[in-house]
DNA sequence: TGACGTCATTGAGATGCCTCAAAGTCGTAT
DNA sequence: ATACGACTTTGAGGCATCTCAATGACGTCA
C-alpha cells in the first residue's frame, strides 16, 4: 500500500504531479504536453456525499476524472426507480457516454466526499486534434468500456447471485490493486442496496450471499469493510474470463 | 418500403453510390472525401449463413459495416456456451470493441447470406487523422454503443420476460424503419433460441411470450415473419425510455 | 450520550422463469 | 416427394430469487 486510499490531497495538484497521472488521461501525453491538458482542466471544490456532478438531461459539456472518493452513475427506470449503471473510482473517467448527444444520459452522484477533475469536452477535442495519441487513448477508453459493459451483460444474463457478487468483488479488488492499494482488503463505497441495484439483485439476496461467503471462508466483511480470504475460490466463482490476465490477484501478500 | 430488404446488390458498389451511405461511415464525409474512404474499403465475397467474419481471439485488424444480411456477435461463457452480445443489420458497424486490444473480444458470424465492407483499422485511423469529422463520427458511434449497452443492462437487470421481448421487437422495428423498411412487418434473422440467448431468457420462455402476445393481439408471428399489430401497447410494455425520440414508431401506415 | 433514521440481516412465503420432456412444424437436401 | 434434422411449441414441476415483514446494527447529529 503506497498511501491511504482517502488521504487528503490539496485541491489543485497539477496533472504532472498527480499520483494518478499514469492511470488517467495524461497517460497519453508526454511530459511537456501534459501541461497543456493541465491548462484546460477545471478543478472544482470537493463534492460532498450525495451531491451531484451532473444530472440526467443536463447539457453535455465535459468529461470528468475522479481524483479521490467515488462516484455512481444512474438513470431512472420507467417506474421511476433508480438503476445504477456504474461506479467510478479514482483515475477513472466518466461522462463519455454523453458524447454523441446534447445531454448526459445518466446522473452522476458522489457516494462519499469526492474530488473531481473536469475536462471541458470542446477543449479536449481541440487538444486531441493536436495529439493523435490522446485521441487514440480516448478511443481505447471507450472501447474498453464497451467490452466491460459486455462483461456486465453476460453477468446479468447468465450468472447467478453468488457468481455476480464474486465477480463484483474481484473486479473491485483488481481496480484497487491497479491504483496501488490492497486488493485483499478494502472499503466498499456503496451500500448493499446500491450493489444489488447495480447487479440486478434484491438487497436481501446480496446480504444473504455475503453471509454465506463468510460462512464458507471466502471473505470476511464488517459493514463496508471487506477482506478477501480466499481469492482463488472467489475468482473461480466469478469465472476466469472476468479478469484481464494483467489483473490477476496475488493470492498471498 | 423503398425496396425489398434482401434485394440482391452488386458486390462492389462504391460508397458514394451505396444506398446506406447516409447511415454508415460516409455520413461523416463530404462527397469528394468519400472516395478516399472508398479506396481503403475491402469488399469481400458474400458470407454464407454460419460463416464467420472473425473469431474471438483473432488479431484485431479491421472494423466492418454490414451491407446486406445480418451478423451476430458472441462470446463463450465460462461453461463454454455461447453468449450473444449483439445483432448487426445493414449499415451498422461492428468490430469497434476490439480497438483497444490486440484481438477481437467476440466472434462474428453471419446469420444469413451477408455482404460486408471491411475497413482496415490502420487506414481508418490515418483517414481520421485527416478528417476530424470522421473521427468525431467514430467517437459518436462508440458513445452511442455505450448508451445502448446501458439500455441493455437495464433490460437485463430490471425487466421481465414480456418487457424484454417487447423492447427487442420495438428496437428491431425502429432499426428497420431507419433503413427505410417497414417497421410494422419484418423478418427476424435470428432464431427463438438466439433471441432468448441475447435477452437472457430460455427458448421456451420466448416461445410462450410470443404465443401470449399473439393471443393479446400485440403481434402476429408466423415462423420468423413478425407483424406488429398494436405498437402503442407494445411500446408501453417496452417502456418509453427504450426508444430515442426520433425512433418512435408511426402508429398507423 | 442518547435518540433517531438509515442500512443490514434474517425468516417465511410467493412467483416468474428455468429445466426436463414430448410432440409438432418447418426447411432442406437427397 | 420424402425423410431427416433443426427449430418451435406446449405442458408439468422445481428452484432461485423476489417480496413482505420484522428485528438488529450502525452512524450521525443534536
Can you walk me through this structure?
- The structure is a homodimer of 253-residue chains.
- Chain A is an alpha+beta fold and 253 residues long.
- Helix content of chain A is 37%, strand content 19%.
- The first copy, chain A, contains seven helices and eleven strands.
- A four-stranded antiparallel β-sheet of chain A has the order 1-8-3-6. Chain A has a four-stranded antiparallel β-sheet with strand order 2-7-4-5. The first copy, chain A, has a three-stranded antiparallel β-sheet with strand order 9-11-10.
- In chain A, a hairpin with a 5-residue loop joins strand 4 and strand 5.
- The N terminus and C terminus of chain A are likely disordered.
- At the A-B interface, helix 3 of A face helix 3 of B.
Which key phrases capture this entry?
disordered C terminus, DNA-binding, 7 helices, homodimer, four-stranded antiparallel beta sheet, 11 strands, alpha+beta
| Structure summary, number of beta strands of chain A | 11
Terminal Cα span of chain A: 11 Å
Quaternary organization: homodimer
Overall pLDDT of chain A, averaged?
A: 87
The largest sheet of chain A is: 4 strands, antiparallel
What overall geometry of chain A do the principal axes of the alpha carbons give?
Answer: globular
Strands across the major sheet of chain A, in which order?
1-8-3-6
Structural class category of chain A: alpha+beta
